[in-house]
Specification:
eight-stranded antiparallel sheet; binds fructose -6-phosphate; Rossmann fold; 3 domains; Glutamine Phosphoribosylpyrophosphate, subunit 1, domain 1; 608 residues; alpha/beta; 25 strands
């Protein structure tokens, strides 16, 4: 979704802005622009890729020591150059904005009455004119921004430069992330740390309601009441290597292969702390004591991680667990139970539906909240009483892969923490689980070694229009995940069913043209899955079965089998996620789609 970058330095900042925007490209966008102060405000905007905007900026010889840039994902107003950011008001200031202003209509009318003309359909231009209006009254960009934000309702991250003030950028945050990067005699702003780590690792995250001025030699932050405040400086741990492709063809491929490492890194604090509530922060013991239930909230792939977790939590910890799609939960009447732990799962920590669902749960009386997230300092963990950060590293490909498997690891640990707190984990079982977790990165590595066989299957999938995925029990969510991955990056229509549901409807779809993928590990449901397979074979459907090395599953006419590593018990969904990711990846590759940036999708879904 939208991305912000800004810089003030004793050197030309245009290359810094362009580099930052390129690093934000993965989030999804449809137009890009930069504005700089070079005596007067100069701006270049283009629909399409950052590279096109870069070429235009270079043709115009854009260069300056102060500037802002933006990648836009259209919400208010179509994908046009006029709607792209930065927006300039009266030649006085240039502004970029992430988020949505709810009262933009009423402010627009007011500003029109004050004589301001509008050249776009965006809510952002309203903010630019509003700040300009106050700038003319106060003569000071910081006070003007403070006044303007008091009149806005909605979510925003803003970065503003003014013609009259070459010595600073002014930024503001409410509901959308924004951080400041501190360099030597230079400073940067960005909506995502990946846009600045090539310049500096020293970062300061702004808090809700903050307005700040950013100068070459420092930063002054003011909270929502206007009082000067200090925000802690941190050293970002995001590695530049995680933002670069290296020897891989796509980020998705790279991230699939990073899973053994990502899982091992995520396991580190778990194996160090043990299955103790302290794993979730200082309030862990207090907030996990006497739990009577768990409510999981998430979207997309993260929701499927929640579906696996439900199985683990009920089986191991013996507490009821409900899993809701966040965008549904936030709009339905709920019965809050103070004994329930609300767990949000989000790779980005910014997904608006999940964030709003959490806010709703809190407003309705839930105070035991835990966020499982991959991005430190993002909105969802900040709002939660407890946090667990997965250590997947930056995930750039739009399709979530290593974030998913590391979420699973965190959720397995959660189930065991609750089980132990409830006295349901014997020392012997605990030791067995620790052992299984230690072997997990190795089992995932074995699954990765199946890539050549899966790539061969993908050739057969590539010409298809539809596919079915079947799984049972713990592996039904993996079937859902396989279908989601395939449709999102290869654009093949895919649906997943709990295999027992086949005869209740979807079997009617099965014919020679319908490939059917089956997740068939060697668990208690294997015999049931085998009968479901016969139902499909009898109708001429072609089966692609992922079976464990130790299961008795023979190839036969129309039944192809790939053997994943030895069955790993309850952790099996983590291992089985890998082949379905690779199947989607190689099918997309064979179809020539844009694997890392599939059409119509964004990495962080910060709009409803
Ligand atoms: C699919 C995918 C999405 C996300 C969903 C939630 O590959 O990545 O379905 O899982 O948009 O995103 P997060 O986890 O950032 O809240």
């Amino acid at each position: 979704m939208c991305g912000i970058v800004g810089a003030i330095a004793g050197r030309d900042v245009v290359p810094v802005l362009i580099d930052g925007l390129k690093r934000l490209e993965y989030r999804g966008y449809d137009s890009a622009g930069v504005a700089v102060l070079d005596g007067e405000l100069k701006r270049v905007r283009r629909t399409g890729r950052v590279a096109e905007m870069e070429a235009a900026a270079s043709a115009e010889g854009l260069a300056a020591g102060l500037g802002i840039g933006h990648t836009r994902w259209a919400t208010h107003g179509g994908v046009t150059e006029a709607n792209a950011h930065p927006h300039i008001s009266e030649g006085e200031l240039a502004l970029v904005h992430n988020g949505i202003i709810e009262n933009h209509e009423e402010q627009r009318e007011r500003l029109k009455a004050l004589g301001y003309g509008f050249s776009s359909q965006t809510d952002t231009e309203v903010v630019a004119h509003l700040v300009c209006h106050h700038l003319r009254e106060t003569g000071d960009l910081l006070s003007a921004t403070q006044r303007a934000v008091r009149e806005l309702r909605g979510a925003y991250a803003l970065a503003i430069i003014a013609r009259s003030d070459p010595s600073r950028l002014v930024v503001a945050r409410m509901g959308c992330p924004l951080l400041v990067g501190l360099g030597e005699g230079e400073a940067f702003v960005a909506s995502d740390v990946s846009a600045v780590v090539a310049q500096t690792r020293r970062v300061v995250y702004l808090e809700e309601g903050d307005v700040a001025e950013v100068r070459r030699d420092g930063l002054a932050v003011f909270d929502a009441t206007g009082a000067a405040v200090q925000r802690a400086e941190q050293v970002s741990g995001v590695s530049l290597a995680s933002l670069e492709l290296g020897p891989y063809r796509h980020f998705m491929q790279k991230e699939i292969h990073e899973q053994p490492r990502a899982i091992a890194d995520t396991l580190e604090p778990i194996l160090e702390t043990g299955f103790s509530p302290a794993l979730f922060g200082p309030r862990g013991s207090e907030l996990l004591a006497g739990l009577t239930g768990v409510q999981i909230l998430a979207c997309g792939t993260s929701h499927y991680a929640g579906l696996v977790a439900r199985y683990w939590i009920e089986a191991l910890a013996g507490v009821p667990c409900a899993v809701d799609i966040a965008s549904e939960y936030r709009y339905r009447p709920i019965v809050a139970n103070p004994g329930t732990l609300v767990v949000t799962i989000s790779q980005s920590g910014e997904t608006l539906d999940t964030f709003e669902a959490l806010k709703y749960a809190i407003a309705e009386g839930h105070h035991r909240t835990l966020s499982i997230c991959n991005v430190a300092e993002s909105a969802i963990p900040r709002l939660s009483a407890m946090q667990f950060l997965t250590r997947a590293g930056a995930e750039i490909g739009v399709a979530s892969t290593k974030a998913f498997t590391t979420q699973l690891v965190a959720l397995f640990a959660l189930a065991l923490v609750i089980a132990k707190a409830r006295g349901r984990l014997t020392a012997e079982d605990e030791a067995l689980h620790v052992e299984a977790l230690r072997h997990l990165p190795g089992s995932v590595q074995h699954a990765l070694n199946l890539e050549p066989q899966i790539a061969a299957w993908a050739e057969r999938f590539a010409p298809k229009q539809h596919a079915l995925f079947l799984g049972r029990g713990l592996h039904f969510p993996i079937a859902l995940e396989g279908a989601l991955k395939l449709k999102e990056i290869s654009y093949i229509h895919a649906e997943a069913y709990a295999a027992g549901e086949l005869k209740h409807g979807p079997l009617a779809l099965v014919d020679r043209e319908m490939p059917v993928v089956v997740i068939a590990p060697n668990d208690a449901l294997l015999e049931k899955v085998k009968s479901n397979i016969h139902e499909v074979r009898a109708r001429g459907g072609e089966m692609f079965v992922f079976a464990d090395a130790d299961s008795q599953f023979g190839e036969e006419e129309g039944v192809h089998v790939i053997r994943t590593p030895r069955h790993v018990g309850l952790l099996s969904p983590v291992v089985h996620a890998v082949p379905v990711q690779m199947l989607a990846y190689h099918t997309a590759l064979a179809r020539g789609t844009d694997v890392d940036k599939p059409r119509n999708l964004a990495k962080s879904v910060t709009v409803e």
